[in-house]
């Protein structure tokens, strides 16, 4: 593999006798992983119907390796949000972040959503997850992944850390900064990261990480946890960033977290003025475990200012809209999603508990999207379908994963069907995947146009 020469020299210098094993790992195939989405399916249920050749990833409860010649990303179960394809080492971040149901959690650099969807499944739908991404296009992908995984309690925003920090001082119990970095740990799977690498870019990334952490720390409650992670090896962006941070913010300390035995401690000898306890931070090496390179630090804010009061979002709904929704829900659902209902133009959402006011922020998804008002009727959203289970809907149309019909449905074709007319929750082997609307003997396809399979 064509690795930058200066990078190789730097790593040789750092790793010394370990360098040969490290560089040999670049000749091995990259590891592939999927993480079961426990918001939609339990681990046991998934394993009973699992069509792939999987092997447990030892450091994450819901994580499994799969072989490079299988394509779980192209299976109907993927579209039903039963799992998320995620690099195995990256799954350690969600595991060590240890989110709890009911907390207020911020994922500050969240796209495309690997860690956000992991945090959400650990939160079990309780509490508030704010998932932010600074780049508009990436924020859209994040929002789609939040939808596919059936997450009900996330607000997806497209903001700068600076603007969020002004709005949410001392607000969150837990913050994840999965920082933009020089990506050295991804060289095996990402050619672009290799091409863009330079010592100058490493220095620029380190400065940007300092700035992001400056804003992140101010949004954390006293007693809260800040988790910092990168997918790079360079000490400047790892032990260096954390040491500079702790020097500036002595009200934080490094937490000792329980880790998988293949993970390695942070290196005090690789940076000037290493913070005390830096060896409690974690390095993941591709020559020591079956995963790419990562760095993780878990910090605790030991004291700080109590949060000022912030404004909460208020329910806002035209009675005509509420009536149309209630009529739809009465005809179609056995369970209606909870939360504060709010309409933005003709779109109806259920806000998560304790949702803050969102005015002036760029919001892609203020909670669970329930649907759209169309003249006096209500049309359910794809997000609502993905958030429901088979028991939640009065009419369910199930398609087996290996059937021709599921392929036809995913391609947007209409299906022949019989039964009472109205909205049907379409399921694949019992797990929701979208909507259909039955009239006569035809099931009209409401699988979103942008998601349809080609060919
Ligand atoms: C490592 S990626 C995040 C991966 C994501 N957490 C996941 O698990 O799928 C870092 C993200 O930070 C975003 N980013 C870049 N510059 C930023 C900045 N100045 N502030 C905040 N985020 C930034 C990038 O667009 C990128 O999506």
From TrEMBL:
The record's listing under Pfam families reads:
Methyltr_RsmB-F, Methyltr_RsmF_N, Methyltranf_PUA, RsmF_methylt_CI
| Residues annotated to bind S-adenosyl-L-methionine | 109-115, 133, 178
Keyword terms of this UniProt record: Cytoplasm, Methyltransferase, RNA-binding, S-adenosyl-L-methionine, Transferase
Task: Give GO terms: molecular function aspect only.
Answer: RNA binding; RNA methyltransferase activity; S-adenosylmethionine-dependent methyltransferase activity
Q: Which residues form the SAM-dependent MTase RsmB/NOP-type domain?
A: 22-302
Q: Name one GO biological process term.
A: RNA processing
Which residues participate directly in catalysis?
231 (nucleophile)
UniProt superkingdom = Bacteria
* Family as reported in the entry's similarity comment: Belongs to the class I-like SAM-binding methyltransferase superfamily. RsmB/NOP family.
The protein's name in its UniProt record:
NOL1/NOP2/sun family putative RNA methylase
> Source species, please?
Ureibacillus terrenus
């Amino acid at each position: 593999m064509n690795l930058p020469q200066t990078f190789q020299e730097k790593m040789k210098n750092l790793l010394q006798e370990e360098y040969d094993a490290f560089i040999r790992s670049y000749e091995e195939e990259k590891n592939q992983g999927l993480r079961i989405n426990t918001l939609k399916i339990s681990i046991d249920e998934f394993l009973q119907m699992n069509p792939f050749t999987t092997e447990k990833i030892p450091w994450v409860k819901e994580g499994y390796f799969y072989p490079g010649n299988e394509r779980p990303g192209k299976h109907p179960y993927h579209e039903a949000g039963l799992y998320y394809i995620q690099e195995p080492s990256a799954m350690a971040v969600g595991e060590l972040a240890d989110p709890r149901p009911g907390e207020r959690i911020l994922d500050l650099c969240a796209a495309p959503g690997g860690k956000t969807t992991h945090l959400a499944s650990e939160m079990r739908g309780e509490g508030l997850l704010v998932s932010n991404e600074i780049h508009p296009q990436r924020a859209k992908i994040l929002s789609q992944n939040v939808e596919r995984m059936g997450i009900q309690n996330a607000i997806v925003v497209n903001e700068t850390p600076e603007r969020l920090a002004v709005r949410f001082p001392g607000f969150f119990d837990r913050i994840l900064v999965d920082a933009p970095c020089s990506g050295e740990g991804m060289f095996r799977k990402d050619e672009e990261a290799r091409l863009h690498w330079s010592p100058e870019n490493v220095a620029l990334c380190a400065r940007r990480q300092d700035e992001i952490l400056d804003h992140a720390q101010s949004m954390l409650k006293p007693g809260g946890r800040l988790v910092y992670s990168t997918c790079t090896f360079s000490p400047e962006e790892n032990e260096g960033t954390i040491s500079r941070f702790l020097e500036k913010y002595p009200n934080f300390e490094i937490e000792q977290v329980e880790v998988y035995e293949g993970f390695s401690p942070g290196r005090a000898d690789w940076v000037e003025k290493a913070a005390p306890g830096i060896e409690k931070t974690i390095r993941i090496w591709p020559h020591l475990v079956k995963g790419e390179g990562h760095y993780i630090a878990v910090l605790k804010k030991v004291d700080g200012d109590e949060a000022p009061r912030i404004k909460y979002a208020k329910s806002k709904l035209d009675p005509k809209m509420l009536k149309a929704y209630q009529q739809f829900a009465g005809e179609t659902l056995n369970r209606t999603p909870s939360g504060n209902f709010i309409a933005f133009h003709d779109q109806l959402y259920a806000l998560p508990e304790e949702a803050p006011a969102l005015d002036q922020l760029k919001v892609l998804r203020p909670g669970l999207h329930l649907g759209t008002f169309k003249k006096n009727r209500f049309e359910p959203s794809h997000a609502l379908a993905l958030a429901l289970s088979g028991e939640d809907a009065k009419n369910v149309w199930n398609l087996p994963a290996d059937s021709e019909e599921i392929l036809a449905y995913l391609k947007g074709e209409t299906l022949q069907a019989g039964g009472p007319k109205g909205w049907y929750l379409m399921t694949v082997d019992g797990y929701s995947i979208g909507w259909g609307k039955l009239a006569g003997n035809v099931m009209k396809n409401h699988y979103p146009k942008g998601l349809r399979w080609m060919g």
